[in-house]
Amino acid sequence: MNLIKTASFIKSSSVYFECPEHKLPEYAFIGRSNVGKSSLINCLTNRKKLAKVSVKPGKTKLINHFLIDKAWYLVDLPGYGWAKVSKTEKLKWELMVNEYLQKRENLHCVFLLIDSRHEPQAIDLKFMRWLGEREIPFAIVFTKTDKLGKIKLQKSLGDYRGVLSKEWDELPIQFQTSSISGIGKNKILDYIKQINGK
Ligand code: GTP
Ligand code: MG
Known about the structure:
Blueprint: E1 7-13, E2 26-31, H1 37-45, E3 63-68, E4 72-76, H2 87-103, E5 107-115, H3 122-133, E6 138-143, H4 150-167, E7 174-176, H5 185-197
Parallel strand pairs: 2-4, 2-5, 5-6, 6-7
Antiparallel strand pairs: 1-3, 3-4
Bound molecules: guanosine-5'-triphosphate (GTP) and magnesium ion.
């Protein structure tokens, strides 16, 4: 078992150079609004209210740093692809997140969250391309697996991999999670531990 002992909110930043000192390894969670980024951070840390969760999309608006076991950071980012957001807000988000992803020296891996129920969405595929072109390491996390039965889930993920295989020679590592049951939590924590140990 891989348990997090301490988790504390450090700060919210609106630009990469305001983020905490970059001496410790960090892991950022990104994906469409409402996909479950903040919920997964709470699940990984066994805390109900560490990261702010909402049924309404657009809850997380800044770069939020959480210090884990005094040794590494989890970072909650705002979601993309929310239709109701204004063009100005969208541009502001893009600049904030894109700069952070490209310039944060201690960012070891980006976890890109995808709702396991949905067909591949152009916006996610485009974002993966953007990460790939910049050689930013990322893993895929299929979220909300509790909402599908086993067979439907495997079909949905199989179809997703099929689409990805058309443009990627090698697929990134993938995880399946449910923030309700805690499925997938240990595998993600093991993966982080493995990178931290390198
Ligand atoms: P933004 O901050 O708005 O970008 O959203 P987010 O990606 O951080 O999503 P958040 O964690 O706030 O969750 C959005 C909604 O999905 C909430 O109502 C959660 O309770 C729900 N949710 C998140 N993860 C799961 C999951 O694994 N299973 C189920 N059934 N619901 C989930
Ligand atoms: Mg959030």
